[in-house]
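Hi all, a correction to my earlier message: I attached the wrong file for RcnB family protein. Here's the right sequence:
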Amino acid sequence: MRKFIILGLLAATVVPSVASAQSYGEARRSEQRLREEQRDLRQAQRYGDRRDVREARRDVRDARQEAREDWQDYRRSHRDVYRGGNWRAPFRYSQWNAGAQLRPAYYNSRYYIADPYRYRLPRPGVNQRWVRHYNDVLLVNVRTGRVITAHRGFFW
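and the right structure:
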């Protein structure tokens, strides 16, 4: 009887880590499938007829939807990473869009996301940084202050 209890406890601790690894793998595979479908669409646009292009666009749309759902499932199963926490800036919240010009106080090094890979954000380019603005994440060109990309409600 004691062996069954120990095995049950072991299984209870191992199963959640295996489930999260599977969801991360699913998200990675769906992103790879999306890239393959986009490559097929480019090939169809270059060498195919209208029907081929239409089918390839439908496949890209389906792959994009699947990748989005897998990403949402991954975030839902890893809420501890994306929780908002008690984070407040010394300025009021503003909803920023791509192309907006920020003052340096909004994107100084204090607000940089040090490890964007932890949140599965793409690597920023030269002179670009991921910046946290309340629960939003902004990709900002630090030389000009322009917002390149805005993800609203990124943190819970």
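Sorry for the mix-up. The chain has a mean pLDDT of 80.
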